Amino acid sequence: MAKAPSGIYTAEERMDVPGFFRSRFGTDDCPPEQANIWRLALTGHMHDSYHFFACNFAHVADKHGKLTTLRPFVGQAILRVTLDSQLNAELPGRVAEVKARQLGWTVENIARGLHYVLDENRRGILLVDDDDVAAEQATRLGTMLNCLPSWMQPMRRIQNLKHLVFDNPNPKDRIDNPGLNAAFQITVPSSFRGVPPGFVCISEYAHMDS
User: Fold this and answer.
1) DSSP strand pairing (123-127 vs 179-187)
2) What is the Rg, in whole angstroms, of the alpha carbon atoms belonging to the chain?
3) 168 band by pLDDT with thresholds 50, 70 and 90
4) What's the pLDDT score for residue 97?
5) pLDDT at 73 > cutoff 90
6) Largest CB tally within 10 Å, which of 40, 101, 111, 181?
7) pLDDT tens string 74-91
8) For residues 59 and 141, what is the distance between their CA atoms, to the nearest angstrom?
9) Residue 109: how many CB atoms within 10 A of its CB?
10) By mean pLDDT, which of 21-30, 134-143, 154-163, 194-203 is the weakest?
């Protein structure tokens, strides 16, 4: 398992959750009356750092069906550092991967897309080559989302296998409390028209019809 270079990420980005709490509050034993303060600090740090999010909150099922967090192998680490280096330099995050087939590459991109849309007014899309692959990857997306702490999960107005819309599901108070107005979709290219995403991942591009 690869470790991210220390020059790319701050010390807090490379910590686990207890370590983050000790760094911020001097202890990892939260007083009950400060629970909301600690949760806000943790959620804010999760939003600020994809690496922290992926290592602590992006759960995936391994080949034995056991849930584990997304600790990168060498290839994933290269992808992660490349994108974060571009984004930290305020450049568009653009990466083309030419690689051997290996479990985990698309999962890394799903986690990146989920992290991106856990903020207001954002759209993400993962393009795959057929509907069966879309269903498989959507299951992985659902696992990541549902494994987040309940207080960290956004409201969902639409939640089907391949399309998530993070809005208030209650029309009565949607104006006052709209939710994130964000969405993530996993689909084939024919359904891509008209969608204005800020995060796009095209998987198995070589298998797609021109």
Assistant:
1) parallel
2) 18
3) very high
4) 63
5) no
6) 111
7) 878 888 888 899 888 888
8) 9
9) 23
10) 194-203
Q: Which two three-digit tokens encode residue 160?
A: 């089907």
Q: Of 151, 181, 185, 147, nearest to 166 (Cα)?
A: 181
Instruction: Answer yes or no: are the C-beta atoms of 113 and 83 closer than 8 Å.
Output: no
Q: Report whether pLDDT(207) > 70.
A: no
The label of the residue with tokens 């305020």 reads 90
Token output for 101:
């087939």
Instruction: State the Cα–Cα distance between residues 51 and 31, nearest whole angstrom.
Output: 27
Structure tokens at 29: 């034993």
Is the Cβ–Cβ distance between 204 and 143 less than 8 Å? no
At 184, which amino acid appears? Answer: F
